[in-house]
Give the backbone structure.
Amino acid sequence: MSDPIKLSLAEARDALKAKKISAVELTQAYVDEVEAGAGLNAYVLPTAEHALNMAKASDAKLARGEGGALEGLPLGVKDLFCTEGVRTTACSHILVGFVPPYESHVTSNLWRDGAVMLGKLNNDEFAMGSSNETSYYGSVINPWRRAGDTTPLVPGGSSGGSSAAVAARMCLAATATDTGGSIRQPAAFTGTVGIKPTYGRCSRWGIVAFASSLDQAGPITRDVRDAAIMLGSMAGYDPQDATSVDRPVPDYELALGQSLKGLSVGIPKEYRVDGMSSEIDALWDKGIEWLKAAGAVIKEVSLPHTKYALPTYYIVAPAECSSNLARYDGVRYGLRVEGSDITDMYEKTRAEGFGDEVRRRVLMGTYVLSAGYYDAYYLKAQKVRSLIAHDFIKAFADVDVLLTPTAPSAAFGIGENSDDPLAMYLNDVFTVTVNLAGLPGISVPAGLSSQGLPLGLQLIGRTFDEETLFKAAYAIEEAAGVQPAPAAWWKA
Amino acid sequence: MSVDQNTVRHIARLARIAVRDDELEALANELNGILSWVEQLGEVDTDGVEPMTGAVEMVMKWREDKVTTGNLQKEVTANAPGGDDGFFVVPKVVE
Amino acid sequence: MTMNVIMRDREPRAEDLIKGETGDWEIILGLEVHAQVTSNAKLFSGASTEFGAEPNTQVSLVDAALPGMLPVINAYCVEQAVRTGLGLQAKINLRSVFDRKNYFYPDLPQGYQISQFKHPIVGEGEVIIDLAGGRSESVGIERLHLEQDAGKSLHDQHPAMSYVDLNRSGVALMEIVSRPDMRSSDEARAYVTKLRTILRYLGTCDGNMDEGSLRADVNVSVRRVGEPLGTRCEIKNVNSIRFIGQAIEYEARRQIELIEEGGKVVQQTRLFDPKTGETRSMRSKEEAHDYRYFPDPDLLPLEFTQEFVDHIKATLPELPDDKKARLIADYGLSPYDATVLVGESARADFFEAVAKGRDAKLASNWVTGEFFGALNREGHSIEESPVTAKQLGELIDLISDDTISGRIAKQVFESMYKTGRDPAKIVEEEGLRQVTDLSAIEAVIDEVLAANPDKVEQTKVKPALVAWFVGQVMKSTSGKANPQVVNKILAAKLGLSSDD
Ligand SMILES: [Mg+2]
Ligand SMILES: [Zn+2]
């Protein structure tokens, strides 16, 4: 095989089955890429030896004609997923040196199906961020650059390590998580596909929690088919998660290539926000044309509470995180900074262990839950959240799927937005509604900006209707044609 | 509602995060910026609206009353920064 | 929980009032009882609840709050809470919500306790408490909710450090909150006693206070008669019924003295020290707490159907109040005896097995007298008793058919208790059968009369001396003569009326 890293996940799977390449060869190729791309800072912990051992075991299975759906396929794992015997920190100093004695349900599913782990991927600290700049291990550099410009750009966040590694061909696919857009926005920023499935589709067990009612795992991949294959393996009922849903996982690959004839696509008018770049606007129109051409019926719909989604999110998510992060107290694992008494130990540990953005959200969440403010903030936000969810229910009475841009802009430069939390939060304006309503959403690359940066379109579906998302995303992918890969400048 | 430096000190104490006095002003400004932005929710009429409880309509699963795990002393204490004889150890707590 | 101020109006009883320097004071008491649910596994994890294991061995990844761990509710604990609610004649809420109560403490690994705040699983109910002199009072139950227990911090292992054991962390508790309906330490003790009895009948809590399965937080306030409620103090985690009484007595006097000296009661959390019999302010709770309750996003609302409740209702045992009423009606027991018997269902069952087809009064005398006396003396529970109900019944049969006298029966019982042998066997082997043969008794009487002519003479002026003769006859027959028969013959022979 001339250049194995050019294969998509589906192609590599078929090549392994056809014995055109061995899992060890494929894995070694990726181990080399991971090393060569160290400058992108996508991996916080490469696990080359572990990967090659897994690949060896896969080869033995493949030789016997056995092996699961992902047998021998090398993947990257966001550092939010606990991996047994492999350091997991959520890219926070407070989890320094933490080695879980257990494996997350989602990653166990991947290993059950034969996948190979290349290492742990960078992310915003505790998944709080939209640019991967809040990671304790430093920023990830987007493999994409503006045309004729070497300014380092962010890969999006919080799953910035995942999106960068997939875009830079440093893994076949990666796991990611999405609380307000953390799969879809980085996918859009890196020309990759990212799907956040319906809340409850993937088990949250063993994933470091950020905001429990919003967190959901999903894959970032090179194309729609790969996303369908990955989600098929990651998803599934888990009795250890009370919010995991007990229903069979469809074969998502079967949805690809199905006709869009008669599919009703909603265009939410409230998503044409002030100050949105004309490029994004034009991209959106292009998407509408593509779907129309594929036989879909386009309808304008209204989601009247859209503008309240971000403020709602920035009450609900910090509130939940302030409580979820209380367990990082220096007692049972991770960082401890000694103090004069127990309270002093707690306060010093948490001051040193949490970065600025995490601290900001924990304080914000503590405030909105505190005595006298609960009703005005948290309860109010949960009521508005009901209205937002209801908007979607109403829209889905009329249409089968919604089409929107994924993010309001292309990737921006490292440091460009980091002084203004509110400007940073606006990155999630199109994605966060989906988390609040628990719906599935997919981002699919739809072309390049005038500066040569990838842009993405988002499809939003009914609960547990990921199949329609895959079907429609595949049609967009087909219509958009082969997208270029970033020039591998980091290897030079 | 706006947050003053004393309030920041109070919530930092509730959250058990040490905050230096020279950070209070900046933190108060940041939080006030976010709070005044989220307060636009006040415009929304939520009379008679039930708060969202679960993201997706589903029935909570129950577990059986079976002992399914145990004897993990080594595993649960393996990462402990202070530990002795199977216990977690912390600075003395005074009742 | 914050105590609601809904309470019953009651005329204060003079004997409950506390005399202060400046007048009479009334004590107002409300209790929050934490009862450990009898279950194999914890409320939200599959770790064992067994008492007394090595530190941190009964701790799941969930109980230690490792990152990414999630709670899943134990169905049986839900059932037990519903069963308890039904036993407290309370409203069962088909939909309830688990909230997080946020605070930092080393024995609280998650940094929050999963509890129920706004929407508990059980609403209002009632407990009838049994008091001295047959008096009973009704105590309102405000609510019952499910929550997690915390771990344990040990402070004596090291001069500068505390040691944390999470074995209890996550064990299911029912917090049962009463209305402030009690007015004396006696009533508070009767309330906990009765609650414990009900829980044990239901099998929802073993009531073992030594092992911490049942603990009470006691809310104490005082007021001058007729005045509005005073400020209350909460005495945390009192773990014996005796201590509850002591803590209340001390705390009420402390508050009265404070007010009478011109001071003010400050609402606070206090600890009872059994060594000194005093309460003192808890340092760790001094800081104003703000628990930031909100619905736990890891758990959906707890919902079940009326059929689920009805199914549990159908399996409820007879409860102590019903049992007491039935014992009084069916066996003609006094309310006092009935109360003593229903205190534990095993006692009442034992009594019923003994009384079945026998003289109920005699049965109750034997069960509550000799039998309980022996258990107490030996420190045995009913289950550990060497004497079975069947054996005690047989002993009573031997009394009823005059095989032995009541006096001999006591001797036989002691032997039964020591050896576990059947009463008939003991009577036979030890030759304790009562002598009812008239001629045999008459012969002994004649012998005694003949040997004591002077005493015979004296009885003519001092008829009470007959008792001395009865004693002599019983002595010569080693107590086996039927005392009624002896009396009768003696009276006849001495020319006395046998009735005096
Ligand atoms: Mg309480
Ligand atoms: Zn409690």
